[in-house]
Design a protein that fits this description.
Elements lengths: L3 H5 L7 H10 L1 H22 L2 E3 L15 E5 L26 H8 L3 E6 L27 H8 L5 E6 L5 H7 L2 E4 L19 E6 L2 H11 L30 E4 L10 H16 L3 E4 L3 H29 L6 H12 L2 H21 L5 E4 L20 H6 L3 E8 L5 E7 L5 H15 L9
Parallel strand pairs: 2-3, 2-4, 7-8, 7-9
Antiparallel strand pairs: 1-3, 4-6, 5-6, 5-10, 9-11, 10-11
Helix pairs in contact: 2-3, 9-10, 9-11
């Protein structure tokens, strides 16, 4: 005889909105879901190694996210769990207060589902997490554990951060939706800084609907984050999701580095463009020459300069517990003069202003999130050059899973939009998601 509990259980990899619809029909399922996720996490952790800390309390709370487990990147403060920042310096550190975004999640009824592995202070020194599609490959970074946990079907939603490419790239490598909102959309109070001019709080999920719904609940401002700027109000119906644009107008952005991408990634991109045209979108090539030439130097100058100010004292006090990656970043930042830093900041503002004009007439742009599949090995988390322009500009960007490469690892597409036009960008991404109609499934980790 079939177990009725099994009939009501959601499939592995169910999205946030799908779960909320099921929970509305079945409160028992809502009560049990986080416990089931915890059992899955404990069973997979010796192979996946996505978590620094798993929760002890997964009791359901009331609210619009009631019953939804949300994994938290381990540079985001939690008052009831260690926050190690991916560093042995903070191995047993438990913050006094939750980060703003964690407190908001608790108030929304979400279950705070442990702490996911981050590279050291969200920079390049990797943690132990493996790619769930092939453990011989990196999951990307710095939000390694969050991307892997969503990809493996352990949680439907996870928080990450991005300062170069730390949401968009691992989302592509793991075959999930990654979303970096506009700069300042989600307050960073309680998030360990790497570069305050560039740090973003972002999201991982399985569907565009899920990150759109999460943003509608998490966008806000806080006096402790001077870079915060509230987004224009928008609402997402939890039963209907985000409404896709009709016949969107999309700019195709390739950049000079296009020639260095893997052939399978190029083929997937061209196929997606052709499929979008067939479905009624208007697509035109968009040249962004100055952004292409200037973004990498500008973003790295800003990042290294600000990181040197933040971490110089730390690496001096704890040289034996600081990686060579972090020490090198500090040394690089100290070589930049104040004039060089200010010039890079001015370049950032100039490029941001120019992009507003260049994208006018387009709903969004479509480009690549990475050069191809996740690199082999765990020592290198991947090249962020396709992500950096949109981080520098602070504009919304979305990764969509779109196919597999020759090694059987996921490949993605990236949709980016105008600054503070997050809702419109998500509507364009939802349209593209429906046209691609691609679901990578859950890897057998």
């Amino acid at each position: 005889m079939t177990d009725p509990t099994a009939r009501s259980a959601p499939p592995s990899g169910a999205g946030v909105l799908e779960l909320l619809r099921r929970f509305k029909r079945d409160s028992t399922l809502a009560d049990q879901y986080a416990t089931t996720c915890l059992e899955q996490a404990e069973a997979a952790e010796h192979r996946l190694r996505a978590f620094e800390y798993l929760p002890r309390d997964v009791a359901r709370r009331p609210g619009p996210l009631s019953g939804i487990p949300v994994a938290i990147k381990d540079i985001i403060a939690t008052s009831d769990m260690p926050t190690t920042n991916g560093s042995p310096i903070y191995r047993n550190h438990v913050p006094e207060r939750d980060a703003w975004v964690v407190e908001r999640l608790r108030n929304l009824g979400a279950t705070i589902f442990g702490k996911t592995v981050s590279t050291e202070f969200a920079w390049r020194h990797p943690g132990p997490t493996v790619n769930p599609w092939n453990p011989a490959h990196t999951p990307g970074g710095s939000s390694s554990g969050s991307a892997a946990a969503v990809a493996a079907g352990i949680v439907p939603l996870a928080l990450g951060t991005q300062t170069l490419g730390s949401v968009i790239r691992p989302a592509a490598f793991n075959g999930v939706v990654g979303f970096k909102p506009s700069f300042g959309a989600i307050p960073r109070t309680g998030v360990h800084p790497l570069s305050p001019s560039l740090d973003h709080v972002g999201l991982f999920a399985r569907r565009v609907d899920d990150v759109a719904f999460a943003l509608s609940l998490l966008a806000g401002s806080d006096d402790s984050d001077p870079h915060g700027r509230p987004l224009p109000d928008f609402e997402i119906d939890a039963m209907q999701g985000v409404q896709p644009l009709q016949r969107p107008r999309l700019g195709i952005v390739r950049f000079e580095k296009w020639s260095r991408t893997e052939p399978e990634q190029q083929q997937l991109f061209e196929a997606a463009i052709a499929k979008s045209r067939d479905a009624g979108a208007v697509l035109e090539e968009l040249e962004l020459g100055e952004l292409d030439r200037a973004n990498w130097h500008a973003i790295n100058t800003i990042l290294a300069s600000e990181a040197a100010l933040i971490f110089e004292g730390l690496v001096e006090r704890f040289p034996d517990r600081s990686s060579d990656h972090l020490k090198s970043l500090v040394q690089t930042g100290k070589t930049h003069t104040a004039l060089e830093y200010l010039a890079a900041k001015a370049q950032q503002e100039k490029l941001r202003s120019a992009f507003t004009t260049e994208i006018s007439g387009f709903d969004a742009i479509v480009t690549l999130p990475a050069f191809g599949e996740a690199p082999e090995g765990l020592g290198f988390t991947g090249n962020a050059e396709f992500c950096a322009p949109w981080t520098l500009l602070g504009v919304p960007a979305v990764t969509l899973p779109a196919g597999f490469g020759k090694r059987g690892l996921p490949l993605g597409l990236q949709i980016a939009g105008a600054y503070r036009q997050d809702h419109r960008t998500l509507r364009a991404a939802k349209w593209m998601e429906s046209v691609l109609a691609f679901d990578p499934g859950i890897p057998g980790i």
